[in-house]
Design brief:
heterodimer, A: about 250 residues, alpha/beta, Rossmann fold, 8-stranded mixed beta sheet, 8 strands, about 35% helix, B: about 350 residues, 2 domains, 17 strands, AB_hydrolase_1 (chain A), AB_hydrolase_fold (chain A), Alpha/beta hydrolase (chain A)
Chain lengths: ~250, ~350
């Protein structure tokens, strides 16, 4: 049964499976800029039920969280990472350090990998789908494309980069996600560093992380025949199957 | 001059009695004491407290046979004394702010309380005792202050000496530097001046505590009364056109008034967010759990724990909340980030 839980700061869709196998564990699904939190919740319910873990899809509304993907919010706006942490604390105060299986689509994938850079010990696994661009764990490139000049207000990732690379990570990208649409961040520097399309950027980020020591539990999967669409990725590709399998294999490993 | 007034004039008058109009005093006579009653006492033996804080804030040295104008009150201080109301002529000076009480417990590392003999209670011409409750300076609570009042930040902590007042002062300093007008209120504890001076020194343009509402100390006072004081402080800040009100609660979560206030919906409605001062990771996590279960949003953690970078890192990862040194809290731009929508949208801070 899905319900909407709301604090003055942040709202979220929640689903609890009938059988919760790991009480301290949450599957967190973070929307892109279309802010389709409920759609994500509906799509991921079967995964949560199969694994016996609680599911939450936060709704980072435009007014309060205009730049939630980058974490370094503009002055006068709430930070999405802190809002999520506070919400989780309020939902389950008995577990101050939850373990998150963090999924994000597009802008949600941007949020998710930056969250993992800040809080690697809170993230159990990372599933990044169709991110428009990435923060590379590269101390020679300035934030937000790299780790240099990291915002002082964010947890510092430099000491945690190795922990970040040890998080089991599944990167998915549509094989047709090659359009340079209006929502894609473009520019000479980012194109040069990361590539011109989401497909290319996913490949480069994956390869860069692998070159730093990311292990065999890092995977890059192309979703055949799909462009930049969450609905199509769910309905027409093996995305959910990949995620279920990925999470199950992590469960077995742990 | 009336001999009673002559006697009071030469006595050392303590900080908590500062609002009382002593010209009303007509006699001094022994009687059963109620919390807040003003009394005259003589120093018998100097022990833990060697000085008394005067109405000016100066800490005057004590000598045997000094006469002191004090207030009858209780004290709850984990690092010092537990004291009940004085029951007899023989009593104790249990707080330097000017509380006369009967010490019942003390911390193992402090000396016994300074001993005093109570000469009598100050009474007016009608024989009524002069009680602090007759001399309040806070306005009555406004009927509707939610939504339009100052943004109200709560400061609470894991216990006594965990760094709450330092944290509150740092918040005041940083907010003041953004150009905001800041008021501060110490809502619970035992009446004394140093915390209020510290708030003033940090830049608060209005400082308040429970003594402004007629209480010498808050231990064992009805919660509804304390909530009303919080409402009055918020009203005062609103009338003073303050942008922020910092409210500090004394002691830790398990202190009975602190716990009761935090559990009370009417008190929580007055609060926008919370900062906590911690002296250890386990205590901080316990407090975070308690506050989160009450839906109180925590926007930052500071306190004596932040002397240790390793503990800061440990707590930040465990809680997912910002753990900030004093210097970080004092940074207007950084604090503004952590305040989020309760901060200012000006980049220039």
């Amino acid at each position: 049964m899905a319900e909407y839980y709301e604090t003055p700061e942040l709202g979220a869709w929640l689903h609890e499976p009938e059988l919760i196998r790991e009480p301290g564990r949450w599957l967190v699904c973070v929307h892109g800029i279309s802010r389709n939190a409920r759609e994500q919740l509906v799509a991921f319910k079967p995964v949560a039920d199969a694994l016996g873990i609680r599911l939450i899809a936060p709704n980072f509304c435009t007014q309060r969280f205009p730049g939630y993907q980058r974490l370094d919010q503009r002055p006068g706006h709430d930070r999405a990472d802190l809002a999520l942490n506070r919400l989780l604390l309020q939902l389950d105060p008995t577990c101050p350090q939850p373990r998150l299986d963090l999924f994000g689509y597009s802008g949600g994938a941007q949020f998710s990998h930056r969250y993992a850079l800040c809080y690697p010990r809170r993230v159990r696994s990372l599933m990044l789908a169709a991110a428009g661009w990435y923060t590379f764990p590269d101390s020679n490139v300035r934030y937000p494309r790299g780790l240099a000049a990291w915002p002082e207000a964010l947890p510092q990732p430099a000491a945690q980069a190795r922990q970040f690379l040890s998080i089991p990570t599944l990167i998915t990208i549509g094989s047709l996600d090659t359009q340079r649409d209006a929502s894609l961040r473009r520019g000479e520097r980012i194109d040069h560093q990361q590539g011109r399309t989401r497909l290319e950027r996913a490949q480069r980020w994956f390869e860069y992380c692998r070159s730093l020591g990311a292990g065999t539990d890092w995977q890059l999967e192309q979703l055949e025949g799909v462009g930049h669409s969450f609905a199509d990725s769910i309905a027409e590709t093996r995305l959910l199957h990949l995620i279920t399998h990925f999470l199950q294999s992590q469960q077995e490993n742990s | 001059m009336n001999p009673v007034h002559n006697r009071l004039e030469s006595a050392k008058r303590s900080f908590v009695t500062r609002h009382a109009d002593l010209s009303l005093c007509d006699s001094i006579s022994p009687a059963e004491m109620a919390a807040g009653d003003l009394l005259l006492a003589k120093v018998r033996r100097i022990r833990q407290h060697t000085r008394i804080e005067l109405t000016s804030g100066r800490r005057a040295h004590l000598y045997p046979d000094d006469e002191l104008i004090l207030c009858a009150g209780r004290r709850y201080a984990t690092d010092q004394f537990t004291a009940e109301l004085p029951q007899a002529q023989s009593a104790h000076l249990v707080a330097a702010g000017g509380i006369a009480g009967q010490m019942t417990q003390r911390h193992a590392q402090v000396k016994p309380a300074t001993e005093i003999d109570i000469i009598g209670i100050l009474k007016d011409a009608q024989g009524r005792s002069l009680n602090l409750s007759r001399f309040t300076t806070l306005p009555l609570p406004a009927e509707q202050i939610f939504g339009s009042g100052p943004r109200t930040l709560l400061v609470t902590g894991t216990g006594m000496n965990s760094g709450k007042t330092t944290l509150a002062a740092n918040l005041i300093y940083a907010l003041n530097r953004t150009g905001a007008r800041v008021a501060a209120c110490k809502l619970t504890g035992t009446g004394s001046g140093p915390d209020l001076w510290r708030f003033l020194d940090a830049g608060a343009d209005r400082v308040m505590d429970f003594t402004d509402a007629g209480l010498a100390s808050t231990w064992q006072h009805p919660i509804n009364e304390l909530i009303t004081i919080a409402q009055r402080a918020k009203t005062a800040a609103q009338l003073n056109r303050n942008d922020y009100l910092i409210v500090e609660l004394a002691d830790g979560f398990f202190q009975q008034e602190t716990a009761a206030l935090l559990r009370h919906t009417r008190f929580r409605q007055l609060i926008d967010n919370c900062f906590i001062a911690a002296d250890c990771t386990a205590g901080a996590l316990g407090l975070i759990q308690q506050l989160s279960s009450l839906q109180i949003p925590i926007h930052g953690i500071s306190g004596t724990l932040t002397r240790a970078p390793l503990l800061m890192e440990e707590l930040a990862q465990a809680s997912g909340l910002p753990v900030l040194t004093s210097e970080q809290v004092q940074s207007p731009a950084l604090l503004n980030q952590y305040l989020g929508s309760l901060g200012t949208r000006e980049r220039a801070v």
